[in-house]
Write a structure and sequence with these properties.
Layout: H1 2-6, H2 15-29, E1 33-41, E2 44-52, E3 55-64, H3 78-94, E4 101-110, E5 119-127
Parallel strand pairs: 3-4
Antiparallel strand pairs: 1-2, 2-3, 4-5
C-alpha cells in the first residue's frame, strides 16, 4: 500500500541501471557469483565483477532501446577494451587477486521502451586484455 502511494514520486531507474540489474540476474541464473556492481575507482567504473568457477569475470553491460543503428556490443571498441583492461588490473591489485585467472565478458541488452523484458545476449571471453597491461593468464 505504501509503495503505491510513493511510486508516483519515485524517480524512474535509468536504462543503464535497469540493464545492469537484468544482466546481474541473468548471470546469477548461469551460476555466476556477483561480487561487485558499479565498482568505481579513479580510473572509471566496472559494471559487474563476478566469479565463474575459479575465474574472476569483468562484465561490461551495454543496454540500448533498439539495435537499429548498431548492436549494443559494438560500443565495446578497442579504446573501451583498453580502459577495461586498466580497470580490471587495478581491481585485481586492490583486492590481492593478481594470481587469479580473469576474463572479460560483454552482456548486450536490447530493451525497447514498450517491452517489459529485455533481450539479453551474453558474450563470454569477449576480448583479450589489450594495451600494456596484459597480465591475465
Amino acid at each position: 500500500m505504501l509503495f503505491r502511494w510513493i511510486a508516483p514520486w519515485r524517480k524512474p531507474q535509468s536504462l543503464g541501471l535497469r540493464g545492469e540489474a537484468a544482466a546481474a540476474r541473468f548471470l546469477r541464473k548461469l551460476g555466476y557469483v556477483i561480487i561487485a556492481r558499479s565498482d568505481r575507482s579513479k580510473l572509471g567504473e566496472i559494471d559487474i565483477v563476478a566469479v565463474d568457477g575459479r575465474t574472476v569475470v569483468f562484465v561490461e553491460v551495454k543496454t540500448r532501446t533498439s539495435s537499429d543503428t548498431a548492436h549494443p556490443s559494438d560500443a565495446v571498441d578497442a579504446v573501451k577494451q583498453a580502459k577495461l583492461t586498466r580497470l580490471a588490473l587495478s581491481y585485481l591489485r586492490r583486492h590481492n587477486l593478481l594470481e587469479c585467472k580473469a576474463r572479460f565478458d560483454v552482456v548486450a541488452i536490447t530493451w525497447p521502451a514498450t517491452a517489459t523484458q529485455p533481450t539479453i545476449e551474453h558474450f563470454p571471453n569477449a576480448f583479450e586484455p589489450t594495451g600494456e597491461f596484459q597480465l591475465f593468464s
